Amino acid sequence: MMSPQLPQGFAAVDGGEDPHAFVSYVDAVSALSSAQAYKQLTLLMLRVGEGARVLDVGCGTGDDARALAQVVGPRGWVVGIDNSRTMIEEATRRQNGLGLPVEFYVGDAYQIAFPDEVFDACRADRVFQHLREPKKALSEMIRVTRSGGRIVVSDPDWGTFIVNSPDRDLTRRIVGFACDATTDGWMGRQLPGLFREVGLQDVQVRTSLVVIEEYDTAKEVLGIEWLAHGAAQAGVITSGEAERWLRGLQEDHAAGRFTCGLGGFITSGVKP
Known about the structure:
single chain; alpha/beta; Rossmann fold; 10 helices; 8 strands
């Protein structure tokens, strides 16, 4: 059974009722064509080639780390760290037998267990929205990256949560709750300023939009049913309004009108 707090529950995957539900969630996101497009952009913005050493913070099931390992080749080295043992075990399982230059470890974004300036590039995807101290994590990423190395962080901005519904007022209230239910729902828009604040240079920003046109996929990937019921429990809307909103979305899906999406920011910078 999928955790009712996906995708907001990633701050403590292993402590959930069903940690493996988060593995299924990651796979569901990765299967979206719009997600694949922005992920490819994040990898390109790292500007790494054969022989590079790359760190992936919050690597999840390791799909992106394995993609990077194919780019850097046998002379390169990719490391994926995640605070979830469940994720690292799954990433390691998927890596077995592939012969790629990638390693996975349970690790802490606030205390990365590597010496200074080990990596040529460092990345994090959909991680900072769950962090209470994003500046500390970014500073650690900078510490382990060599001078001239590039850092790329991509995160959604829940203030851009899009749901096509005829009830605009009710939708605005639920969307607002969705943003506030995340540790930092505005993380995406804050990344460029954070990069400059810690002294990164040549800061560049790209945007992304994950689009979903299936109700069940939006339920799984964006947690729209949990968000509606959660907003009711928080007193933002009534339980009747939650049911009415969800019923309207299901009717829109049946009529071919359902559209849902979430925007994000991809920010890169160079260590001086």
